[in-house]
Amino acid sequence: MARRPSMKSVETKYYEERQQLFDQLRGLDRRSFLKVSAAAMGAALTQGIQFTPHSFQPVQVAYAEEAEAFRFAYISDSHLYDRKVNERFVRSLLRAVDDVNRMDPAPDFVLYGGDLAQLGKPEELDLGAQILQNLKVPVRMMVGEHDWFLDMGEKWRALFGEPTYSFDHKGVHCVVLLSVLEDDFWTVRGMTPMERMQTVAGLDNGIQSRFKVGEEQREWLQKDLASLADNTPLIIFSHSPLYKYYRAWNFWTEDADEVQALLQRFKNVVVVHGHTHQLLTNRIGNIYFHGMLSTAWPWPYAPEGLPELTIQMSRPDPFNPNDGCGDGACRVYTDGLADKVYNLWNRNPVQVTRTYMVSNGKQGLPAMPNLISF
Amino acid sequence: MRLLRLVWTQRWVSILSLVFVALACDSSPSPTSSSKTPQPQAPTQPSGAKEGVDVQLCDGETKTTVPADVERTRENGVKISDALMAQWKGKHPDVDWVSQEQEKHTIVPPHDNHNLVEKGQGQVYGKISEQDVLTWERETLKFVTDGSRVFHSSDELGSQIAVSCDMCHPNAANTHPETYPKFQVQLGRVALLRDMINWCIEHPVRGQVLAPDDPKMRALEAYITAQRKGQQLAYGKR
Fold first, then answer.
1. Cβ distance B33 to B156 under 8 Å?
2. ipTM for the complex?
3. pLDDT per residue over A239-297, tens digit each?
4. Inter-chain touch B171–A248, beta carbons under 8 Å
5. How many structural domains comprise chain A?
């Protein structure tokens, strides 16, 4: 019988598909290969197909739009007291360290988001440094107001070095700022260092000044960014949000406009900030702002000024000491955009993806809260 | 000589009475802090021109000895009474506790009742004066300010782990007093605001629970409720 080329036997088609699949697989890098295998397995299982060693499911290989540059983890706002005074906060920080050590794949580094101590005492900072030594990946430290205003950074510098610095990581430029400086309110009142610290420690204490980055640091930042091209991926780590959310609680940076002006020329800037102890999302032009969770306690949402893009975390249950707390991670892409992961303890994690940010909240919405703030 | 001595005594009496008046004005301790009412004693008589003069405040405790060779002028008298007052204030740092607390924490003011002044059909308590309205306002605000003081102090709350209410509730945010009474799901029963305050004191704050009529409980309730002035009542809201 003569074979017509347009008609192929089932067996021929089968082997051609098999060859096509192998050719595609050969072209993949390791991460995509794993994705494809997982997808193939998933597809096979959902279709209820009997999985025999000789079956091949042709799979469309989907490539990610942008490659992931790296991922980092974060732990923030632990507010440690001496162990004899309060053990609860210590346990929470230990849990966060465990979480990060168990991450797979391991993050490239951990950012510590500030407020390691509650009252800035040397024993509190020592305790925090000791606990963070258990992390298996390198730590990048950032200052919060609770660390600073007892001795104006003397102990911090001794333990962790300069509070303001920058570094490059896999093509992304990262800057760590000290954004909780305050105008002097303590000298005219004749306050002792502890009185000054107690004033700053009260979130709703109106005597303190508003947070600022300050002219000196802004000049440093301008010089630091001067040599970078506009399309350099840029991440700014800051304790205060670097925008103006709620003044009374210092969810606020007084010179936010000036700082944002320095960042305007870049294609994509991600700001990761602490202090707010809640799920917080904002976008101002090319700058994408993400808050970090606290390990110690959650703050409520402010009565006004909440950014539009923020989808709230559900009102924490006071009967669960860890609710509303946690740690998290950030997947940074080569174009400078990021996915933010909130690893809320005892809850499903929440992801605020690059798609959500870029589409201004129209696509890729994270899960809605059960109980909102009122 | 005798005339001069009389005049001199009168001068001291007038200075001391000024001091007495200053002490009497709005320096009452907070309702929840424990302090005794001062028991005034008669000041000791001037012991003699050679050893010096003992000058004492009407609290019977704060005193100083003025050397005999100090010139008895008005200026020196004012200096002595200033020094005694500074001594007294040093021993009582919380004398200005109301204004200090209000400076630290914004407190919602009570309702303005000025529209009631000089109105009424003329009963015993019906003739309302400006003084009445101010008294009501100040006393109410003082009570609420005391609540703010307790709310923001882990020591006053008796916390064993240095936790205060404002750590989860800055400016009493997220307390929702207007939603009580409600079924508190975690307790499995209907609760009043004070039940929830006591639960918080016992668990997150880890202090001793308060009796419902404890001055601190009343003050805390007052402060928390006051911060929600103008909110609609919505009892039962989750």
1. no
2. 0.81
3. 999 999 999 999 999 999 999 999 999 999 999 999 999 999 999 999 999 999 999 99
4. yes
5. 2
Does residue A231 have a pLDDT over 80?
Answer: yes
Number of domains in chain B: 2
Q: Does residue A297 sit at the B interface (CB-CB below 8 Å)?
A: yes
What pTM value is reported for the model?
0.78
A79 and A26 inside one domain: no
B152 touches chain A (CB under 8 A): yes
Q: Closest partner residue to B105 among A205, A321, A373, by Cβ?
A: A205
Residue B193 maps to which CATH number?
1.10.760.10
pLDDT at A298: 96
Structural domain containing residue A33: 15-63
For residue A5, the model assigns a pLDDT of 55
Contact check, Cβ <8 Å, B104/A205:
yes
Nearest CA in chain B to A206: B104
Contact across the interface for B174 and A300, Cβ inside 8 Å: yes
Q: Is residue A82 part of a domain?
A: yes
Q: Which domain holds residue B64?
A: 2-94
Q: How confident is the model at residue B6 (pLDDT cuts 50, 70, 90)?
A: very low
Q: Number of Cβ pairs closer than 8 Å across A and B?
A: 61
